[in-house]
Design goal:
eight-stranded mixed β-sheet, single chain
Length: 544
C-alpha cells in the first residue's frame, strides 16, 4: 500500500485525568531488543523530500519550474514545440497543432484545441549554440494533430525551429506558423536513496521510502514509482510528478511473508516525456525478516514532532444598511514538541474476566516509556443481551514520569442457539507527552442601533502545557502486550521503524462573502504549519 502521513493522527485527549490502579512491574518482554542508533536515519535526514509533497496528491503538480514549450500563432492556427535531448545523443522534437497542455500522467501529449486542427506539412531546422544551421528536414502530409520528429544531432544550448502548415483551425484556410524553442535535456529521474525499517517481523507491513530526484533541471516528468520484493511487483504509485530539479518521496508499506533476507528494489518507470538516463532509475536494498510470536492483528504508530502552527480568521456581517451587524477576528499560535504513540490490537477470541494477567509496555532501545501490570483484573462494566456479551476494562494514566494516555481492553462473545458462536478481543494502548505553547488573541463586536445595543469583547491568552517526559529513541519504538486467560498466553509485539520527516504547508489568505440589498457578509481565513522530527507506523497479522 502506498501511504501518506497525516499530522497528529494518534493523539487521544479523552484519557486525561485517569489514574492507574496498579503499580508498574519491572518484568521485560521476551522479545528482541530494539535497534539503538539513529545513525542510519541521520545519514539522510536533510528532509528535502518531505518538504515537497507530503500533503499533495500525485494526481496534480505541486510545482512546475521547468522550461515552457515554444509557442506561436498565425490567425486561429497555433503551434507548440518542445526539443529534448537524451544522454546517448538522440533527440526529438514534439510538435502540437494547438495549445500545449504538457505531458500527462498517461504519458500522452495534450492534443491541442478541440475542433480537429491537424498538421499538414512540417519543416524542422536545427541550429547549434552559435546560431549556425546544422540541417533542414521536411515531413509532408502528416495528417495528425501532434507528431514526434526524430532529430538526432541536436546540441544543448542550440535551438530548434519548426514551421508548420495547420489545417482545420480557421475553416478552410491553412495557417503557417513558425516557432523557435531551445534544445533541452530530457528529465533525468533518479532514485537517490532508500529509507527503510531496520528489520521486519514476519506477517508485518513496514515502510520502505524512496527519494526520487530530477537531476537535469530543464523539465519535470511524470512516472510510476514501483516497489519490487524478491523480483515480484508489490506496490505501485501511478503518475507521480517530479518537478525540474525537484525531489519527492515514494512511500510504500510491504507485508513480509517469509523469514530470512528479502531483496527489494524501487524503480521509476514509464517516465514522460522520456528519461535522460535509465541507468539511475532504481535502487536496491535488503530486509531482514524475523519471527516474533503474535496472537493479534495490529497497527501501531509513533511520532516525535517539533512544530509551529498559526491560523487567523476574520468575519463581518451587517443587515439593514449597517443598523445591525457584527465583526469577529481571532489569531491562534501553537508551537512546541510532542511525542505520541498508539497501538490497536485485535484477536478473534474472546477472553474472560477476571483476567489472569494483563501486562503492557512501551519502550525504546534506551528506556521504558510506560509499563503496567494487572493480575486478577475485573471488568469495569458488562453488557449482555440474548445474542452478545461484552465486557470491558479501561485504565487511564496522566503521570509526570510517563505521560498521558490509556489502556483499554474489551472482550465480545456472540452466542448462537447452540451456545457460543464466535468472539473477539480488542486492545488500545496510547501515550502522549508534550511541551506546547499556546497564544490566542480575539476580538468581537455586535451592535443593534435600533435597540441601542453594542457589545465588545476581546481576549489575549498565552499559556504552556507540559505533559509527561520525552523518551530517547533510536531506529525503532516498541510495544509489548501479554494477556493470560484460563492458562493460555496471548502476546503482540510491534516494532515501529522511525524515519525522519520535515514538512511545511500553508493556506494563503482566502476571502469570500455575499452581498444583497438587505445585508452583506465577508470572511477571511489563513493558516500555516511546519514540523520536523521522526514518524513511523506498522501493521501486522497473527503469526502462523
Amino acid at each position: 500500500m502506498v501511504y501518506t502521513w497525516r499530522s497528529n493522527r494518534w493523539r487521544r485527549a479523552g484519557a486525561a485525568g485517569w489514574l492507574l490502579a496498579a503499580a508498574a512491574c519491572s518484568e521485560a518482554p521476551t522479545s528482541p531488543s530494539l535497534a539503538p542508533s539513529l545513525s542510519a536515519v541521520e545519514a539522510d535526514a536533510g528532509g528535502a523530500a518531505e518538504r515537497q509533497a507530503m500533503f499533495v496528491s500525485n494526481s496534480r503538480k505541486y510545482a512546475d519550474a521547468g522550461h515552457r514549450p515554444g509557442t506561436g500563432r498565425s490567425g486561429s492556427a497555433t503551434l507548440a514545440i518542445q526539443a529534448l535531448l537524451s544522454r546517448d545523443g538522440s533527440g526529438s522534437v514534439d510538435v502540437v497543432a494547438g495549445d500545449w497542455g504538457g505531458w500527462t500522467r498517461s504519458r500522452t501529449k495534450h492534443e491541442g484545441l478541440a475542433g480537429g486542427a491537424t498538421l499538414k506539412n512540417v519543416q524542422l531546422k536545427a541550429f547549434d549554440p552559435h546560431g549556425d544551421l546544422q540541417y533542414t528536414r521536411n515531413w509532408n502530409q502528416v495528417g495528425t494533430q501532434s507528431v514526434t520528429l526524430d532529430a538526432n544531432g541536436l546540441v544543448r544550448g542550440g535551438r530548434a525551429q519548426v514551421q508548420g502548415v495547420i489545417t482545420g483551425a480557421d475553416f478552410a484556410r491553412a495557417g503557417v506558423v513558425t516557432v523557435d524553442a531551445p534544445v533541452l535535456l530530457r528529465p533525468d529521474l533518479a532514485v537517490v536513496s532508500l529509507r527503510q525499517a531496520p528489520r521486519a517481523v514476519l506477517n508485518s507491513a513496514v515502510p520502505i521510502v524512496a527519494v526520487v530526484r530530477e537531476l537535469n533541471g530543464d523539465v519535470g516528468a511524470w512516472a510510476d514509482c514501483v516497489l519490487y520484493v524478491d523480483g515480484v511487483e508489490s506496490d505501485r504509485a501511478y503518475g507521480i510528478w517530479v518537478d525540474a530539479g525537484g525531489t519527492v518521496t515514494c512511500g510504500f508499506m510491504h507485508m513480509f511473508r517469509r523469514t530470512g533476507t528479502s531483496q527489494f528494489e524501487v524503480r521509476v518507470e514509464g517516465v514522460a516525456p522520456g528519461d535522460y538516463d535509465d541507468a539511475n532509475n532504481s535502487a536496491k536494498g535488503t530486509m531482514n525478516v524475523i519471527f516474533v510470536r503474535s496472537a493479534f492483528f495490529y497497527d501501531a504508530a509513533f511520532e516525535d514532532l517539533t512544530f509551529a502552527s498559526t491560523s487567523s480568521y476574520e468575519s463581518t456581517w451587517s443587515y439593514n444598511e449597517g443598523r445591525q451587524g457584527g465583526e469577529w477576528s481571532y489569531t491562534n499560535e501553537t508551537s512546541g514538541r510532542t511525542q505520541q504513540s498508539y497501538m490497536y490490537a485485535f484477536m478473534p477470541r474472546a477472553v474472560s474476566f477476571p483476567l489472569g494477567e494483563l501486562f503492557g509496555r512501551q519502550y525504546t532501545a534506551f528506556e521504558t516509556a510506560h509499563q503496567v501490570l494487572f493480575r486478577g483484573l475485573q471488568a469495569d462494566w458488562t453488557y449482555e443481551d440474548p445474542y452478545m456479551r461484552s465486557s470491558c476494562v479501561s485504565r487511564g494514566f496522566d503521570q509526570p514520569n510517563t505521560g498521558r494516555g490509556w489502556l483499554y481492553l474489551c472482550s465480545n462473545q456472540y452466542v448462537g442457539e447452540e451456545g457460543p458462536a464466535f468472539g473477539w478481543t480488542s486492545v488500545t494502548y496510547d501515550r502522549y507527552a508534550g511541551d506546547v505553547m499556546y497564544a490566542s488573541r480575539g476580538h468581537s463586536r455586535y451592535w443593534d442601533r435600533d435597540l441601542g445595543i453594542e457589545d465588545v469583547y476581546s481576549y489575549n491568552y498565552s499559556g504552556q502545557e507540559t505533559v509527561g517526559r520525552f523518551v530517547r529513541y533510536g531506529l525503532e519504538y516498541g510495544f509489548f502486550l501479554r494477556v493470560i486467560d484460563a492458562g493460555q498466553t496471548f502476546t503482540v509485539n510491534p516494532f515501529i521503524a522511525l524515519l525522519p520527516v520535515e514538512f511545511a504547508y500553508q493556506q494563503p489568505r482566502t476571502c469570500w462573502g455575499w452581498s444583497e440589498p438587505w445585508g452583506s457578509s465577508n470572511y477571511c481565513y489563513e493558516s500555516a504549519f511546519s514540523g520536523q522530527g521522526v514518524r513511523g507506523m506498522v501493521y501486522g497479522e497473527p503469526s502462523p
